[in-house]
Amino acid sequence: MARPRRKAAKSPPAALTVVVMRLYIAAGSTNSVKAVANLDAICREYLKEGYELEIVDVIKYPLRAVTDGVLVTPSLAKLSPAPTARVAGNLSDKSSLLLALGIKAPVK
Amino acid sequence: MDGEANFRDMIRRFAQSAHALQAFDAGEVDAVVDPSTGSAILLGGPQSPDVATRNKAERALQQSNRFARASLDRLATYICVLDSAGTVIMTNKAWRAFAANEGMGAGVPEGANYLEACDNARGQERLDGLAIAAGIRRVIAGEYELFRYQYARASPQGRCGFAFSVRGFPGEGAVSILISHESAAEPEHAHPQPTPRLPAGSRAPVSNRLLSALSRDGYQRLLGAGLEPVSLSCGDVLFEPGEAIRHVHFPQECVVSLLMPIGGHPATEVGLVGREGVVGFPVALWISALPVRALVQGAGSAMRMASAHFRKQLQENPQLQRELHRYSHALMTQVMQTSACHHFHALEQRLARKLLMTRERVLSDEFHLTHESLADMLGVRRAGVTLAACALQRAQLIAYSRGNIRILDPKGLEAAACSCYTPLKDT
Predict the structure, then answer these.
(1) Predicted model pTM
(2) Do the strands A75-80 and A19-25 form a parallel or antiparallel pair, or are they unpaired?
(3) Which of B246 and B39 is assigned the larger pLDDT?
(4) Contact in structure between A91 and A34 (CB atoms under 8 Å)
(5) CA neighbours within 13 Å on the CB side: how many for B298?
(6) pLDDT tens sequence across B350-367
(7) Predicted ipTM?
(8) How far apart are alpha carbons A3 and A1 in whole angstroms?
(9) Distance between terminal CA atoms of chain B?
(10) All structural domains of chain A
(11) If interface means Cβ-Cβ distance under 8 Å, which residues of chain B face chain A?
C-alpha cells in the first residue's frame, strides 16, 4: 500500500478548513477495504477538496501504528483541526463518523 | 476461543478508548498491533475466515451486480431480464423509459410477471402479446435458443417498427431470459408497395411483407388457423429436394437459400427468400414438393403454417391469394435473372449482388456467411470466393473476417454489383 495515498487539498481557498486524517488499515482485509470505501464516500460528499488523508498499512509499517498508539485496524485518526478524534471499525456508522470529524454538531 | 480471548484481553490492556474494543466485538477489526512486540497480527485465522471469505464474496457479488446494472443502463437498447417463471428480475433505464410511454408489456415493473402481462394484453397489443408470450415460453422450455419477433405500432410520428429478441442463458439453477428490444426500420414504411392498401392502423403487426400486406382480420384468421412463430438457426433445412413440404415458412428476419443440387456437384443457389416472401409457395399451386433444398443461411424468426391448413386458408382468403400470386411472379423473376447472371457475369459482381440481396433481407449491414456457403451458393470453388471477397475488401466496400461480413459502403457495392441487382432489388 502506497503512502501517502491521497493528498487532495493542493491549494484550498483560504477560508476552507482542511481536515487532516490518517487511516490505519491492514491492506486487502475486508473491514479495511470497507473503511476506505466508507471514508471515501464521506469525503466526497461532505469535504470535497477540503481534506488530507494518509493511509497507513500497519502490516507494512507496524511501528508507525505503535508510535501513534493505534491498536486495531481499521482505525481513523482525525489529527486537525482540534479536537482530535479516533474511530475504530469499518466506518459503516455514518453519523458517529461525521460526529468524530466535526462535520456534524453533537445533538444537545 | 483462546486466541480471540487473548486479543480481547490485549486490546483492553492497551486501549485508550472504548472504540477499539467495541469495533473488535462487532467483528470490524482486521488486524491487531501488539505494542510490546511492535508487530501487527492479522485476524484471518482465529476470527473465522469463513465469515471474511463470505463477506468478500458477497461484496464482489454486490459490486458485479451494481456494475451489471450500471452497464445495462448505459445501453440504448431496451433490456429486461426474466427468471424461468417469467418474473421481471431486472430492467435497464432505456426499458423503463420506453415502457412508460409505449411498447409491449408497457409498465411491467420489476417483480411482476411479464408473461401474464403479455397474455393479458388488449387491443392493438393483443396479437403481439400472444406471439411473444408463446416465444418466451419456448425459450424457457429450452426449445429455442433465440426467439426474434418484429412488430409495428402506430404512433403520432407515424408507424414505428420494433425488433424484439429473447435469449435464454443459464442462471443459478434455472434458466434466465434476456429480452432486448429496439426500434427497427419499419419495412412497409421503407418500401411502399403499389397496390391499394388499408389504413395503416389496421395492418397485421409482422415484418414479413406478405403477412403484413394482409388486413388485421386476415392475419388474425391465419393465427387462428395455426400460423405460429418459429426460430430458425443457421443450417436448418426446411425441406430437401423431392421431399413433401410440410410447412410453409414466412421469414421475418431469417434468410433462406433455395439450393439446387445437380449430379455430383455441390448445390447451387437458385433463389433467396427473406422477409419479402414465403418458403414453400408451390403448396399454393397444389404441388407438394420442389427439386430444391431450402437451407437457412441467416438465423432469425419466421412464421410457419402446416401446408394443409395453408391451402385451406388460401381458398378462403382472396387477399392472401393475391399477395402470393404477386410473390410467385417476383420469385420467378429472381430465378430467371440469377440463372442468366450465372452465365454472363463475373464472380466479383455476383458476389456483390449476393451480399446486397442478403443485406436487404436481414435489414442489417452485418451478417454471417462462410466462404464455403458462399462458394456453394455462387456455384464456384472456395478459392474463387476468397479472391472475389479480397477484391471487394481491398476496394473498402466490405470487411470480412471469419465469415462475418460487414458492408462498409452499400452504394459502392451496388456500383460493383452486376446489372442484375437493380431489377432484383426488393423482389
Answers:
(1) 0.43
(2) antiparallel
(3) B246
(4) yes
(5) 27
(6) 889 888 888 888 777 888
(7) 0.75
(8) 6
(9) 82
(10) 17-101 (3.40.30.10)
(11) 10-11, 14-17, 19-20, 22-24, 26-33, 35, 38-40, 42, 44, 52, 55-56, 59
